[in-house]
Write a structure and sequence with these properties.
alpha/beta; 7-stranded antiparallel sheet; 5-stranded parallel sheet; 24 helices
C-alpha cells in the first residue's frame, strides 16, 4: 500500500493476444503530481487547498453576538467562558447586542454591521460567535464584512429532518455568499476549552461531530498526553472534518489527528484531506459510526449527514492511510502512540514477561492480529540465558521467570533484547502489580526507553490504576507507551507499524488519476442508453470498447442464422437469450451450454425463444457464443456510492458471489498495487494460485481487467450507474481473462 507504480497500470504484465486475435491496448498511468485546480477525467478535483484556520483558533478580535451577563441565562455562561478563552489566547472581545450598552463591563455595539467601523480595535474581527436561535439573518448581515469566521451553536437544522435540512441549505447558501467561513450549526464550545500548556512533545488534534464523544480524549491531558486543538464540527454546513484534517496535518505541533465521525459531508473532500495527511506522514485515526443499520440511522439523525456504505468507507480509509478503530478507548490509545512514538527502525515485536502464560497469551493475540514476532537467534538466546534460567524459553516470547526483574539482571535483559537489529518494538505485559519487583521492572523499562530509539510498550493490567509504578513511573514517561488492555496495545502497535509502512514512499492515488479521456470513451458513449439497462450483448460491446476481452459471439434472430453463427464461432458453443430486462437467465432456463452440432443449435434456438414467449420477455435476439475453457470465476463491477461516487469491486464470481459475498472494494483512482491488494483481501484468494491440481490463474490479466473497469468508471461517472461482469473467467496463467456475462445500467 505504498502507492502505485510508475509507467503503465500493469508494468510487469505481458502483452497478451486474446481468443479473438486482438491485443488489448495498454492503459497508461499519468504519474503527475496533482496541483490546485487539477481535475480527473470525470471532473472531480485531485487537489484541495489547505484552509487557513489560524485566525479561527487564534483570533485577534472576537465578536460575541447575543452576549449576556444576566445570571441564569444560558448565553451568560457561554459569554463568560468565551471571555476566559479570549484572555488565554490574547484576543479582544466585542459584545454585540441591540439593547445593551455593556456586558461584563465591556462596551457593546448594537449590530454586526458596525464591527468594521470600529477604529479602536487595533485589528479586524476574526471570529464572530453567534449566540442566537437563528443564525441566518446574522450571516446575511456579515456579507461583505471583514469577519473571517463565525460559529453557530443553534440546533434545529439537518439533524431534525427535511424541514431542518432545507433551513441548513439556506444557511449554507448565505455562508457561501458572505465570504465568512462557518463552524456549525449544532456545534458547541469545545474549540474554546482550556488546553494544558505545560505539556511538551507532539500533540493530538481532535475533531468530533459529537462533543461528548471527545471528552475521553480531552481528559488524556491529565495523563500527560498533549492536545493542541479541538474542532467540534457539528452539522458541517460549511467547515467540515476534511478542512480540519488538512489544516492540522500542516501544523508543526500536531503528531496525530483523532476523529470521531458520524457522517461525511463529502467523500471526495475527506479523501483529499486524508491524502494531505499521508503526504506529510501525519497519522489520522478515526472512529466512523455506521457499521450497523442502527448505528447509521442514529448517526444520520444526529448530524443530518450520510454515513455511506460501510464496506466502501472502510476501503476508502485504508486506501488513504486512515486508521479506523471502533471504540473511544482505542481512539485515544492509538492516537497517543502514533503522536508520540518515533519512526520504527524494524518491524519485529518481542514480548517480554515474567510469566510464560502471560507471554504465550499475548503472543497468540499479537500473531493473530498480524504482528511479526521473530524468533530470536541462537546467539541472542544464549546471551539472555546468562541472566535467565536455561529451562525458560527466550526465543520470543521471552519468559524471565520473575526473579531477574528484581535486581540488576532485569535491565541487562531489556538492553539485550533492544540491541537485536530485528527488534523494533518491545512489549511487556504486566498483568498485575507485585511490588517491589513490578516497581523495579517499570523503572527499568522507563530508563531503557530514554536511551533507545525503539518503541517500548507496557500493558498495566491492574484494574485499580492507583499504583505508584503505574501513575508515577509509567505515566510520567513520554517515551513508554502504556496501555490498560492487551487488545488496545496490539491494535495500536499494528496501526503504528502499518502507518509508517504505508507512508514510507507514499505516492498519492490522485497523482495516478487520468486527466484526459481515452479513445474508448467516444465508442462507449455511443452504446449507452440513458435511464435504461443494456442487454448482455450491448454490455459486452461496452467492455470491448475498453479493451476487455469477451468471447467470440454473434447475435441472431433465426434458427438458420444461429447455425451459421455456430460455424463461424466454432463448436462447441453456448446459446443465451439476450435482452435488456434479463438479469438471471440461468434460473429461467435461458442458457444452453456445450452445443456441438447444428441440430442441437436449432433445437436450442427454438427452446429459448419458446421460453421467452411464455415468460413474455422482450428479446433483442439469441447470442451464439464461443465456449470458453475452465478457469476461476470472478466478478468485477462498478457501483455508485452516495459519498464517494463510483466504486470498483472484485470478488469470487458465479454463484459464489451471492453465497460467500467474498469481495473487496476500492474508490478510484488507484493503481496496480492497490488492485493486487484487493485480491489479497479475498478469503478465496488461494483459488487464483491453483488448488487441488488446478493450474495457477492469470492474475495479471485479472488485474488488468480491474484497472480497465476503473478507467470506465471514471470516464463514465454520471452516465453509468452499475456494471457487473459475472462471471469473468480467469484462465490459466498466460491465457488471459474473458467476460462471459455482463450487466450494465445507465443513469
Amino acid at each position: 500500500m505504498l502507492g502505485s507504480t510508475h509507467g503503465t497500470f500493469t508494468t510487469d504484465l505481458r502483452a497478451r493476444v486474446d481468443a479473438c486475435g486482438e491485443q488489448p491496448a495498454r492503459t497508461v498511468v499519468h504519474g503527475i503530481a496533482a496541483v490546485e485546480g487539477d481535475t480527473d477525467v470525470s471532473g472531480r478535483p485531485l487537489y484541495a487547498p489547505v484552509p487557513d484556520l489560524d485566525r479561527f483558533f487564534r483570533p485577534r478580535v472576537v465578536a460575541v453576538v447575543g452576549a449576556s451577563d444576566t445570571e441564569g441565562r444560558p448565553n451568560t455562561g457561554i459569554t463568560r467562558q468565551l471571555l476566559d478563552w479570549a484572555g488565554r489566547v490574547g484576543a479582544r472581545v466585542v459584545p454585540v447586542h441591540p439593547t445593551r450598552t455593556s456586558v461584563f463591563g465591556i462596551d457593546c455595539v448594537p449590530s454586526v454591521e458596525e464591527l468594521d467601523t470600529l477604529g479602536d480595535l487595533g485589528a479586524p474581527v476574526d471570529l464572530a460567535v453567534l449566540l442566537v436561535a437563528d443564525p441566518l439573518p446574522v450571516i446575511e448581515r456579515l456579507a461583505g464584512s471583514k469577519v473571517r469566521f463565525a460559529v453557530a451553536f443553534a440546533s434545529g437544522f439537518a439533524e431534525t429532518g427535511e424541514e431542518g435540512a432545507r433551513a441548513q441549505e439556506r444557511l449554507a447558501a448565505a455562508v457561501g455568499r458572505s465570504g465568512t467561513r462557518l463552524l456549525g450549526p449544532n456545534t458547541n464550545l469545545n474549540a474554546f476549552e482550556r488546553f494544558r500548556e505545560d505539556l511538551e512533545g507532539p500533540a493530538i488534534a481532535l475533531i468530533t461531530q459529537s462533543g461528548h464523544q471527545g471528552r475521553p480524549l480531552f481528559t488524556m491531558q491529565e495523563l500527560g498526553i498533549r492536545l493542541s486543538h479541538w474542532a467540534p464540527t457539528g452539522n458541517e454546513a460549511d467547515l467540515e472534518t476534511a478542512d480540519f484534517i488538512s489544516y492540522f496535518a500542516h501544523r508543526p505541533e500536531v503528531g496525530a489527528i483523532a476523529c470521531y465521525v458520524e457522517g461525511l459531508k463529502d467523500g471526495r473532500s475527506f479523501l483529499l484531506a486524508a491524502d494531505q495527511a499521508a503526504r506529510r506522514q501525519v497519522p489520522v485515526v478515526a472512529v466512523k459510526v455506521g457499521r450497523t443499520e442502527a448505528g447509521a440511522r442514529m448517526a444520520a439523525s444526529h448530524t443530518g449527514k450520510l454515513t455511506g456504505a460501510d464496506q466502501v468507507v472502510d476501503a476508502a480509509m485504508r486506501q488513504f492511510g486512515v486508521i479506523r478503530v471502533d471504540g473511544l478507548d482505542q481512539l485515544q490509545d492509538t492516537a497517543a502512540l502514533l503522536a508520540r512514538a518515533r519512526r520504527p527502525v524494524a518491524e519485529g515485536v518481542v514480548v517480554y514477561s515474567i510469566s510464560g502464560g502471560t507471554g504465550a497469551h499475548f503472543s497468540d493475540l499479537a500473531t493473530a492480529a498480524g504482528l511479526t514476532l521473530p524468533t530470536l537467534s541462537v546467539t541472542k538466546q544464549d546471551e539472555l540465558h546468562q541472566w535467565i534460567p536455561e529451562y525458560l524459553s527466550v526465543a520470543n516470547p521471552v519468559d524471565n521467570g520473575g526473579h531477574p526483574v528484581g535486581d540488576w539482571r532485569g535491565r541487562k535483559i531489556i538492553d539485550a533484547i533492544l540491541a537485536d537489529p530485528s527488534v523494533g518494538v518491545l512489549i511487556c505485559p504486566i498483568t498485575g502489580p507485585f511490588p517491589p519487583m513490578s516497581d523495579r521492572l517499570a523503572r527499568d523499562l522507563v530508563d531503557a526507553a530514554e536511551e533507545t530509539d525503539k518503541l517500548i510498550c507496557v500493558v498495566w493490567g491492574s484494574p485499580v490504576g492507583t499504583e505508584d509504578a503505574y501513575r508515577t513511573t509509567l505515566l510520567g514517561s513520554s517515551r513508554v507507551a502504556t496501555f490498560r488492555t492487551f487488545g488496545n496495545c496490539i491494535g495500536a502497535v499494528k496501526a503504528y507499524l502499518d502507518h509508517h509502512r504505508f507512508t514510507t514512499g507514499y505516492r498519492s492515488p490522485f497523482d495516478e488519476a487520468p486527466r484526459t479521456p481515452s479513445p474508448s470513451l467516444r465508442k462507449a458513449r455511443a452504446l449507452l442508453r440513458p435511464g435504461h439497462r443494456l442487454s448482455e450483448h450491448a454490455a459486452k460491446q461496452l467492455l470491448r470498447a475498453y479493451g476487455i476481452r469477451v468471447p467470440r459471439e454473434q447475435l441472431v434472430t433465426s434458427a438458420a442464422a444461429a447455425v451459421r453463427a455456430a460455424g463461424l464461432v466454432g463448436y462447441p458453443v453456448v446459446m443465451k437469450a439476450s435482452g435488456a430486462r434479463l438479469a438471471h437467465k440461468t434460473e429461467l432456463g435461458l442458457v444452453k451450454v456445450g452445443l456441438t452440432s447444428a441440430s442441437q443449435v436449432r433445437d436450442a434456438y427454438r427452446e429459448l425463444t419458446d421460453i421467452a414467449r411464455y415468460e413474455e420477455l422482450d428479446l433483442d435476439g439469441i447470442l451464439v457464443c464461443q465456449m470458453v475453457g475452465r478457469g476461476v470465476e470472478m466478478v468485477v463491477g462498478v457501483t455508485h456510492d452516495s459519498l464517494f461516487g463510483p466504486t470498483v469491486t472484485v470478488g469470487l464470481g458465479g454463484v459464489l458471489v451471492e453465497v460467500l459475498n467474498d469481495t473487496a472494494v476500492r474508490v478510484p483512482p488507484f493503481g496496480e498495487r492497490e488492485a493486487r491488494d484487493m485480491l489479497g483481501e479475498l478469503r478465496g484468494r488461494a483459488l487464483l494460485d491453483g488448488v487441488r491440481g488446478a493450474p495457477p490463474a492469470d492474475v495479471d490479466a485479472l488485474v488488468e481487467v480491474v484497472l480497465r473497469v476503473q478507467r470506465m468508471a471514471l470516464e463514465l461517472d454520471g452516465e453509468l450507474s452499475e456494471l457487473d461482469i459475472n462471471p469473468l473467467m480467469v484462465l490459466p496463467r498466460g491465457q488471459g481473462a474473458v467476460a462471459l456475462d455482463a450487466l450494465a445500467v445507465c443513469r
